[in-house]
Specification:
It is built from 39 helices and 14 strands. It is of the alpha/beta class. It folds into five domains: 128 residues, 3-Layer(aba) Sandwich (Rossmann fold), CATH 3.40.50.10140; 120 residues, P-loop containing nucleotide triphosphate hydrolases (Rossmann fold), CATH 3.40.50; 66 residues, no CATH class; 123 residues, no CATH class; 111 residues, no CATH class. A seven-stranded mixed β-sheet has the order 6-7-9-10-11-8-12, with helices on both faces. Strands 2-1-3-4-5 form a five-stranded parallel β-sheet, with helices on both faces. Strands 13-14 form a two-stranded antiparallel ribbon. Helix 14 packs antiparallel against helix 15, helix 20 crosses helix 21 and helix 20 packs across helix 23.
Length: 757
């Protein structure tokens, strides 16, 4: 199924109709639909009104054809103005090397141009694909103060190092936490020394244990250190009385950066304030003092009780919740469930119990779908000395589950052919014919009939599924980790099917996320980084979606942040920069705010034109954080104040125009943030209007203020501040806007109010 895309608006002089049609025909052969006036405005329509309506509702990116003739066009500047108003990415396309005319320089001077003669039509297609795919990303949405850790702001620091852990998570730990065996000893050590290190190489719930320990001491305010904090920053950071702090450490050298004296002094400071710190690590510290206050965090003694607590917290249906908990008390459950399991296995266990209670699966299915059962079953299947044909079929089942047996067999043959061509690999082969049903059954599959409508009417399609869906992930993990020679072929298979347009993207991503848990290092080397730096935009998009999914895992997001941090400054690899920039506009950027804003700023400064829209869009997304909480608001405006103040005078106009584009899509930043931000907006507009400027942001602010008196008064106050204290050139330019353009708002009352200004 071909996706429905927004039309590409072709802005041009009417004298260039032939070249416009040629480019439109080329783009449309590449699944990029176009809009241009000669073809798409029906006879009799009002020309300019139709352009404005379609720019607002029907089109996406805008291509501006730069020719000698465009210099005399009356409509092109107006089209660009409205394109900016409606937040449309603009691509200037230089035809035959023509320079951008003076009348359009202001609109287009900051944006990446494409020279058609020098770079070719392929560059135009790649740029448009970047815009299309980048705009699909569901990044910041539904940001809530309840789910965000609140920054602890110090005026003396440029970065936030401590975040107050949100109340919702603290409340959850109170309800679901089940102590590990050394909990009493840990509390004694923490209470005596005001510090402790909890370690274990696996995910045994160390973070929840740290919170529970601090809560058991009656600590009300709990903070988490930034993963970017250095030992020196931590030691000399200001402390508050009766605060609890948690620091997760993934660098084995971190503790070696302390001297014994520094650590002892820090612990004494903690005691003086009645505060505590809990270190969390995957390794045991070797320094004598830290070794004395270190505790190995094993799994909870009572995993069943932990599971019950999770069900009570997470299951919304009270009746079903009680049935699930009652079943856990039965002998049947005691014989079935493992005695101990990791906290990150609980969600999967809860789903299985829910399905069993509701009758969706039987007891045998439940038992055979547990982690140890699946792992054993897959290992035993591979112990049978499978041929390359069998391995191909096994992997194809994982990827094409839900297709018919002939489709899966054909995909397996294609994959097996790759094996033979690339490796000349001849594993044990068998010429013995095995009936199709028996062959499928040997891989623990089942066939489910499904009614589908075809061009000949209603038909039954027999779809193949693993009897236990978890098998798919274990098969891929086994081949990836135990059969190195197949890794390159798995990469080829993924790329082939991703580009085949078979709607398998989510399946591919899920399988790759599964691989990331067992072998992130090689997955990064062989799949993630090549995709993230690919010249094929859709491959970069696959990398973005994969990494976005991995960010949801609390145990992976810091390594992903470090990966993105290493990509963001690679000016010699703008595609890798693009991928990193897109990721910082989403969940990763929220977790590492405001550091993410600074990284986006650095990306823009290192490669401004190619990354213009991507950085601007990511910053627009993160701007929503300023509306969530006063501390985030402070950090947000502090960031821009610092950027503006540190920018050299000759560069400031372009930075102000760039920020203008960010604020343009977040007009609420003016109306819904603290009233003391008026000083910021006064400084911004005063500096912006020192030079010829667009009025688009001011126009949007006026429109937003039309129906709300509070908004109206705030805007009038800003204009009055500029009138009284602004530069002469800024006063004059804003006055021209009020005199000539305010009438567009169609409100005489509002118009008269501004005339009073």
């Amino acid at each position: 199924m071909i996706e429905e895309r927004k039309l590409v608006f072709l802005s041009h002089s009417s004298k260039n109709a032939d070249i416009v049609k040629e480019i439109a025909d080329y783009l449309e052969t590449h699944n990029i639909p176009c809009w241009y006036a000669q073809r798409d405005i029906p006879t009799g329509d009002q020309y300019y009104m139709r352009i404005i309506e379609d720019l607002e509702h029907r089109v996406g990116p805008v291509i501006v054809f730069i020719t000698e003739e465009v210099a005399t066009s009356r409509n092109v500047p107006k089209e660009i103005d409205r394109a900016i108003f409606y937040d449309k990415p603009i691509i200037p396309l230089l035809i035959n090397g023509t320079a951008v005319p003076k009348k359009l320089e202001y609109f287009l001077c900051d944006i990446q141009w494409i020279d058609l003669q020098a770079e070719g039509s392929e560059k135009l297609v790649e740029t448009l694909e970047e815009i299309y795919e980048g705009r699909k990303i569901q990044r910041v949405s539904g940001v809530s103060k309840k789910t965000l850790n609140q920054p602890f702001i110090l005026k003396s620091q440029s970065n936030v190092l401590l975040y107050k852990i949100n109340e919702r998570y603290l409340e959850k730990v109170k309800h679901i936490y089940e102590p590990f065996s050394n909990m009493i000893e840990s509390r004694r050590k923490l209470e005596g020394e005001n510090g402790i290190c909890l370690y274990h190489q696996a995910h045994t719930g160390k973070f929840a244990s740290a919170i529970a320990l601090l809560q058991s001491l009656g600590i009300k305010e709990l903070y988490q250190w930034s993963s970017e904090v250095t030992p020196k920053e931590m030691i000399y950071h200001r402390l508050k009385p009766n605060m609890g702090m948690i620091l997760e450490i993934d660098d084995p050298e971190f503790f070696h950066k302390f001297s014994y004296h520094e650590l002892e002094e820090y612990m004494n400071r903690l005691k003086g304030e009645g505060s505590f710190i809990v270190f969390i690590s995957t390794f045991e510290p070797t320094q004598p003092f830290l070794k004395d206050i270190s505790v190995n965090v094993n799994l909870p003694d009572n995993s069943l009780k932990m599971l019950k607590k999770h069900i009570q917290w997470d299951e919304a249906d009270a009746s079903l919740r009680n049935r699930m908990i009652n079943w856990l008390e039965t002998r049947e459950a005691a014989n079935l469930l493992p005695h101990q399991f990791f906290p990150n296995e609980i969600s999967n266990l809860m789903r299985k119990i829910r399905d069993f209670i509701l009758g969706n699966i039987d007891l045998s299915h439940f038992k055979n779908s547990l982690h140890t059962s699946v792992e054993t079953r897959v290992k035993n299947r591979f112990k049978q000395n499978l041929s390359s044909k069998d391995i191909s079929f096994y992997l194809s089942l994982g990827l094409f589950e839900g297709q018919t047996a002939p489709v899966i067999r054909e995909k397996a043959r294609m994959f097996n052919k790759l094996i033979q061509e690339d490796l000349g690999l001849l594993l044990q082969q068998s010429d013995q014919h095995v009936p199709g049903d028996e062959y499928l059954a040997s891989f623990h599959t089942e066939v489910k009939p499904k009614h589908v409508y075809t061009d000949t009417g209603l038909e039954i399609r027999n779809e193949v599924y693993f009897t236990f869906p978890e098998d798919a992930y274990h098969v891929w993990q086994y081949v990836w980790t135990q059969m190195d020679e197949f890794q390159e072929l798995i990469v080829k298979m993924i790329k082939t099917e991703f580009h085949g347009g078979n709607g398998l993207n989510n399946r591919i991503i899920d399988l790759l996320v599964g691989l990331s848990y067992v072998d992130f290092s090689r997955l990064r080397e062989k799949i993630i980084q090549p995709l993230a730096s690919s010249s094929v935009t859709r491959e970069r998009w696959l990398a973005v979606r994969l990494l976005e999914k991995m960010i949801d895992d609390d145990h992976q997001h810091h390594k992903l942040f470090k990966l993105v941090k290493s990509w963001i400054g690679l000016r010699n690899n703008p595609r890798l920069q693009w991928t990193a920039t897109v990721l910082l506009g989403g969940k990763l950027g929220i977790k590492y705010f405001p550091k993410s804003m600074t990284m986006l700023q650095n990306a823009y400064l290192s490669n401004p034109k190619p990354l213009y829209y991507t950085v601007q869009k990511s910053m627009q997304q993160l701007s929503q954080l300023a509306l969530v909480d006063n501390n985030y608001e402070t950090l947000y405006f502090k960031f821009f104040e610092k950027w503006f103040s540190e920018t050299e005078e000759q560069q400031l106009p372009s930075i102000l125009r760039f920020a203008h584009g960010i604020f343009l899509q977040n007009v609420s930043l003016f109306f819904k943030t603290s009233s003391n931000r008026l000083i910021f907006w006064f400084s911004f507009f005063n500096a912006l209007y020192m030079n010829p400027s667009q009025n688009i942001l001011l126009e949007k602010m006026c429109i937003s203020a039309l129906e709300i008196d509070e908004y109206k008064e705030r805007l009038l106050k800003l204009l009055s501040m500029i009138k009284q204290h602004g530069y002469d050139s800024s006063k004059d330019r804003i006055q021209i806007f009020l005199d000539t353009e305010i009438g567009k708002l169609h409100s005489q009352l509002f118009h008269n109010k501004f005339i009073e200004y």
